[in-house]
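Data deposition worksheet. Section B asks for the primary sequence of the deposited chain exactly as it was used as input, without tags or linkers unless they were present during the calculation. Section C holds the resulting structure in token form. Section D is free text for depositor observations; keep each observation to a single sentence. Incomplete worksheets are returned to the depositor.
Section A, Depositor: J.P.
Section B:
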Amino acid sequence: MNRKLNNRHIPLAVPLLLLATGLNAQPNIHSFSIGQAIDYASKNSVIVKNALLDYQIQEQSNRATTSQALPQVTGSLGFTQYWQVPVTPIQGGTFPGTTPGKVYTFPFALPYNTSAGISLKQVLFDGQVFVGLQARRASLEFYRRKEEVTEQMLRANIYKVYYQLLVARSQMSQIDANIENQRILLHSTTEMFRNGFAEQLDVDKSNVLLANLQTEKIQLQNGIDNGYLGLKVLLGMPVRDSLELTDSLTYDMVRNGVLGDDYKYSDRRDFQLMMVGKTLGEFNVKRYQKAYIPTLNFAATYQQNQYWTAFDWTAAQSWYPASFFSFSLSVPIFDGFYKAANIRQAKLQLQQTENNIDSLKNRIDNDVRQSQLQFSSALATLDFQKKNMDLAQRVYEQTRKKYEQGLGSNTEISTAFAEERTAQYNYFNALYSAIIAKVDYLNAIGKL
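Section C:
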């Protein structure tokens, strides 16, 4: 009875053990500066991994192109059994002993044949193959630049989310300070009420303000948590891992930004990518132009053949060698203007690329100018909001002192507190707008 019961419960031990192991597994803890976060993303982000795989795929494609210019060696082994041996008809009278007018047939082969051989083929000259070999480096460069463009886009997004979390963290510290100040004020108001210097309404208003601050903190914390999840996805980090941001963001860090007009198109990754695309387009035109040139190929074959009149693997038979080599020259004469159409199409595509390069230059100029204007405006707004927040804080501190001394009203301190919170909110928005404008400017000039 006990044996059956134990056997029935044995399968449950395995999943319970696995569950216990999973519960004991600890998530990784990461403490990243902005530079470390970008380095981590360059190794773990899915889009960067796929961009690297595109580069490796092109490497294999280049190997396939190279193989066309290398010798092609093929071995062969064959066995043939004729159910009906092919014959050759001969007109009678052609050979002595034959009757004129009568048709004679002679076997063309023996019933059983075995062959073994090796063949060599080599392209001696093919213009299109040689152009393909020349374009190998440019094609690899294209995918390397494409990978850099992908990393650049990812880097800009990481900067923005990272700094957004830093601003939110500073805002959370400010809210905690506001909550602590409001608790002190609530305590003072409660004591004043007990001593007959305040009304119950004043206490209730202080409780409402404190509750509003605590609600605001909960909402901000929810936004921060979601921001961390989004940053982990960008980095390619498991969601269950712990992430801590080690950098800080201050007014002076954002303010120390130098704007200038000294930039080069070649610093932009997307411009570099398009220039490599132009080079590939030029190779494409050259490839179709080389199609008018004759191609020359070499081939050589060596074979050993064996013939049997009866199927017998054990019978000793003679092997008969055969070998040859050949050169073949293919000269294009007329193809219905097929090559001409391909050349014209490639030239038009190259012209499109050149037009896109001119358009990209104009967009870069526009991006730089817009980001300069946005950054200048954001810094001016940040300066104004910083002064306004400092002023609102001084007003609140003075109003609170008057209130605690019984020289001010609850309405005055509530108004001063609301104005301080509004000024803080506007300052943190201005701080985030300024750092994002700075990121956009650095991204526009290719220096991010």
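Section D:
Strands lie at 29-32, 72-81, 87-91, 103-107, 112-125, 242-245, 295-308, 320-330.
The first helix runs from residue 2 to 24.
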